């Protein structure tokens, strides 16, 4: 179905005739007689009129293309036309941003409100996009941070406290972005609030008065309220139990049957995973995902950004809980998905963000693979070594690799936040805070991670020696390691402990925290009296993957050859004449056919417009 895209076609003149009727004439300087001496105006009325005139002048400065887009966007939301809403949200808004507002703010909601008849719901949604643009393209000030929080509260209060389900339909991509941006702005505010030295007196006063602005309690309360209102946990349990749609609808009630509430509740679960990870509570972060299925068929896979973010935070939680095999499997799964879907998202506005998250997961995978060596997907590991080969080599060398661990962790970890703000209300405590500030959240979590790394920094060296023998005298091994026998036993116990991990079966549908203790390495050993007996299990090469990679390579080479132009001989052919002599005949020049749609004019192999020049001897 062809969709009429008024903003992508420079907002054609079809709406031009109706635009004046929709928005009125806002450039007039005022009706005559308003300022007659007989009319006495008080200060409030005069201020209101001045504000109205300023608003009219500001609206007159808005480009016509933007006005027509806003009118069309508002009408699509009122009609509940999800196709038009998606087109305007994912394409129109971004195109107009690049053209008119790449380095400036969009018009404020009060300026464009006459275009939409002062529709309060649309203005709330417009402000959500407005502040998202400010955070992503510009530098928000304290007023922007406070007002964005107030607008988010208005939106969620409308959805949660209306009499019955709100009559609103939005695309799933937008619903995810609402939750994702809400958490991002909370994270940004916490980071900004903790920097005491950059605050002036006015900002400190506002922070003292607005203690509930972007507080952890209010953010968590919103997410849990959306989950409860949507009955999403009951919906997931019922669908996993195989209940009929009628039974599911009866269980979840009127809110749970609406796609708007169901998806907001579902994305709020992912949001809780992110918030608890940012706060450093990795066990609770995985616990809230108990009823969420991690698969290609799950609802989270419908939105690529949600899909990638979910696997990133789950994998990071596994990493910090020292469940390295689970982290490896999680990262490999999503990185394979990104590689397969990369070609389909090159024009998506999410493309850059997905790629950045993918690069961070490659770094985390390098860390996990160094701490728990195992056989992983060859394509993924080749990419890891291409991107972080130098750091990966250092991390497998024991204590010498600590700087490499630190570098990759700082690059790839989430931007942690502190739950408690500085004591702005108490000058004495605030001065003490500035003299001895607490550790930065990232630094604190880095220290915890490096403590785990240091505890096993002798494992790579010990492993390298054990791989050379099937049995070895303990004293000889101790001499290799420059350690006494007691220290050797301690190192071997550390290696034995590191070779076992709580691992969740790949096909398990239960909690992400469940699992079994399994051996994660191909090298095992036992001590018999003074002899170390080593057993190494070898895994055969996966020939299937090797053949697939080479077949794909051959196919790419073949396609490249097919795209090359046909060779055309430049030597004219010689033809026989009746008197026995020969003369050269001019071969007709092969003229490219522009109608075939090729800009270069060179025919490709197998193309219908290819001309062959046959040379007869």
The termini sit apart by 56 Å
Question: What is the CA-atom radius of gyration, in angstroms?
Answer: 33 Å
Strand elements, count: 7
How many alpha or pi helices? 25
Strand content: 5-15%
Question: Could you say which structural class the secondary elements and strand pairing correspond to?
Answer: mainly alpha
Mean pLDDT: 82
Shape: globular
Tell me the strand order in the biggest sheet.
1-5-4
**How is the main sheet built?**
3 strands, antiparallel
What are the segments in which pLDDT stays under 50 over at least 5 consecutive residues?
10-40, 574-617
The helical percent reads: 55-70%
Protein model, in words:
There is one protein chain. Among the domains are: 2-58, no CATH class; 293-456, no CATH class; 458-564, no CATH class; 568-616, no CATH class. Helix content is 58%, strand content 5%. It contains 25 helices and seven strands. Strand 4 (523-528) and strand 5 form a beta hairpin. The model is unreliable at 10-40 and 574-617 (pLDDT under 50). InterPro entries: eIF3l. It comes from Calocera viscosa (strain TUFC12733). Component of the eukaryotic translation initiation factor 3 (eIF-3) complex. This is Eukaryotic translation initiation factor 3 subunit L.
């Amino acid at each position: 179905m062809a969709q009429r895209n008024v903003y992508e076609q420079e907002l054609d003149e079809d709406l031009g005739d109706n635009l004046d009727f929709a928005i009125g004439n806002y450039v007039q300087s005022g009706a005559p007689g308003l300022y007659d001496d007989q009319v006495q105006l008080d200060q409030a009325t005069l201020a209101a009129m001045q504000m109205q005139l300023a608003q009219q002048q500001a609206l007159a400065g808005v480009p016509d293309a933007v006005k027509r887009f806003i009118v069309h966007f508002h009408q699509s939301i009122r009609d509940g036309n999800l196709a038009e809403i998606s087109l305007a949200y994912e394409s129109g808004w971004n195109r107009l941003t690049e053209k008119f507002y790449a380095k400036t703010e969009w018009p404020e909601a009060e300026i464009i409100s006459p275009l939409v008849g002062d529709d309060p719901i649309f203005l709330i949604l417009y402000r959500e996009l407005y502040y998202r643009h400010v955070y992503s393209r510009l530098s928000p000030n304290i007023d922007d941070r406070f007002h964005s929080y107030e607008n988010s509260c208005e939106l969620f209060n409308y959805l949660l406290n209306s009499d019955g389900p709100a009559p609103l339909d939005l695309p799933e991509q937008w619903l995810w972005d609402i939750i994702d941006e809400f958490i991002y702005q909370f994270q940004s505010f916490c980071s900004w609030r903790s920097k005491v030295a950059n605050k002036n007196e006015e900002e400190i006063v506002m922070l003292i008065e607005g203690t509930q602005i972007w507080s952890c309690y209010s953010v968590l309360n919103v997410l849990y309220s959306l989950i409860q209102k949507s009955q999403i946990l009951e919906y997931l349990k019922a669908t996993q139990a195989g209940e009929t749609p009628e039974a599911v609808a009866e269980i979840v009630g009127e809110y749970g049957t609406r796609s708007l509430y169901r998806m907001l509740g579902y994305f709020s679960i992912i949001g809780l995973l992110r918030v608890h990870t940012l706060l450093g509570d990795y066990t609770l972060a995985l616990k809230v995902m108990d009823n969420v299925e991690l698969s290609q068929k799950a609802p989270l896979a419908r939105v690529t950004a949600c899909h990638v973010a979910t696997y990133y935070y789950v994998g990071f939680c596994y990493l910090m809980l020292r469940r390295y095999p689970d982290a490896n499997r999680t990262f490999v799964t999503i990185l394979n998905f990104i590689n397969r879907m990369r070609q389909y998202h090159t024009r998506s506005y999410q493309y850059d963000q997905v790629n950045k998250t993918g690069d961070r997961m490659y770094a985390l995978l390098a860390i996990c693979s160094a701490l728990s060596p195992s056989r992983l997907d060859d394509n993924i590991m080749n990419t890891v070594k291409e991107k972080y080969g130098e750091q990966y080599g250092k991390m497998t060398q024991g204590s010498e690799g600590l700087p490499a661990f630190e570098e990759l962790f700082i690059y790839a970890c989430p931007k942690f936040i502190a739950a408690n703000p500085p004591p702005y209300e108490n000058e004495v405590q605030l001065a003490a805070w500035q003299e001895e500030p607490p550790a930065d959240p990232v630094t604190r979590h880095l220290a915890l991670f490096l403590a785990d790394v240091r505890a096993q920094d002798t494992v790579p060296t010990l492993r390298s020696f054990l791989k050379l023998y099937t049995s070895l005298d303990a004293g000889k091994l101790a001499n290799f390691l420059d350690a006494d026998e007691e220290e050797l036993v301690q190192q071997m116990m550390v290696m034995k402990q590191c070779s076992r991990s709580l691992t969740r079966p790949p096909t398990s549908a239960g909690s992400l925290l469940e699992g079994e203790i399994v051996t994660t390495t191909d090298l095992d050993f036992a001590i018999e009296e003074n002899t170390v007996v080593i057993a190494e299990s070898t895994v055969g090469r996966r020939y299937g993957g090797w053949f697939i990679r080479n077949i794909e390579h051959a196919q790419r080479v073949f396609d490249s050859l097919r795209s090359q132009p046909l060779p055309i001989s430049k030597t004219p052919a010689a033809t026989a004449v009746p008197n026995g002599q020969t003369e050269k005949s001019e071969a007709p020049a092969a003229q490219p056919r522009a109608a075939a749609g090729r800009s270069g004019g060179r025919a490709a192999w197998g193309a219908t417009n290819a001309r062959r020049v046959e040379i007869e001897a």
